[in-house]
Each structure stands twice: as C-alpha cells, then as structure tokens.
Amino acid sequence: QVQLQESGGGSVPSGGSLRLSCAASGYIYSTNGMAWFRQAPGKEREGVAAIDSDGSAMYADSVKGRFTISQDKNTLYLQMTSLKPEDTAMYYCAVRRPCLLMSLSSAGVEYWGQGTQVTVSS
Predict the structure, then answer these.
(1) pLDDT by residue (tens digit) across 48-58?
(2) How far is residue 25's CA from residue 37's CA, in Å, rounded to a whole number?
(3) Strands (E) located in the chain
(4) Which of helix, strand or coil describes residue 65?
(5) What DSSP state is assigned to residue 14?
(6) CA-CA-CA-CA torsion for 76, 4, 11, 106, nearest 10 degrees?
(7) Contacts of 3 (CB under 8 A, 6+ apart)
C-alpha cells in the first residue's frame, strides 16, 4: 500500500510562485510514473504534469513554461511560477500503475494523495 502526502499549497498573488511536495511512503516500483493533477470547483480533475521513471516529463499546455515537475527518490515536486488566478485549484499527487506510457490521464492512476489547496488572487 502506498500513501501520498502533499504539502506546500497556499495563497499567493498573481505572478507568485509555490513549490508543492508529495512524500510517498510504501513500495513504489521503479516503473511507476508519478503525476500532479488539479481540480477547480465545478470542474473535472485534470492532469497538470507527469514524470516517468527515466526523468522525462510532460505538461498540460496551460502550464508549459511555468511549472516544473521533478522527483527525488520517493518525493515528487511541482515548482509553480508565474501563477495565474486560473491556476486556483486543489492539487493532487498521484502514482500511476507500473509500465504504463506516460500520460496526463487519470485512468492509469493507482494511488491518490489527499490534495493541497492553491489559491491565486488577481
């Protein structure tokens, strides 16, 4: 069983930065990919960034050039810069099932964190 604990959320003005962390406990295979998702009120959960076991990453178009995903052993990070009000959402860390192609889809997620709130004011 894998448990995920996010931290680092908060309230910032537009243009600000935040760094989210996700500490994973339990056994994660080297072939598990990890990802960040977000869900704003009244909207569906969407993939923001994903990282593969070899360090390759992919991003949603809406965050390219502003967000950076990284991983250090069992801790996942999301560096967010130039934040916009539309980035306001609950952000979730996720572990995908092993050996899946990297994707921003939630279909391959095996474990979810509880989420951390990010609020960007205009």
Answers:
(1) 999 998 889 99
(2) 19
(3) 3-7, 10-13, 18-25, 34-39, 46-51, 57-59, 67-72, 75-80, 89-96, 109-112, 116-121
(4) coil
(5) T
(6) 80
(7) 24, 25, 26, 111
Give per-residue pLDDT as tens, 66-119: 999 999 988 999 999 999 999 999 999 999 988 888 899 999 899 999 999 999
Cα separation, 103 vs 59, whole angstroms: 9
- CB atoms < 10 A from the CB of 121, how many? 11
Nearest to 51 by CA among 29, 72, 34, 76: 34
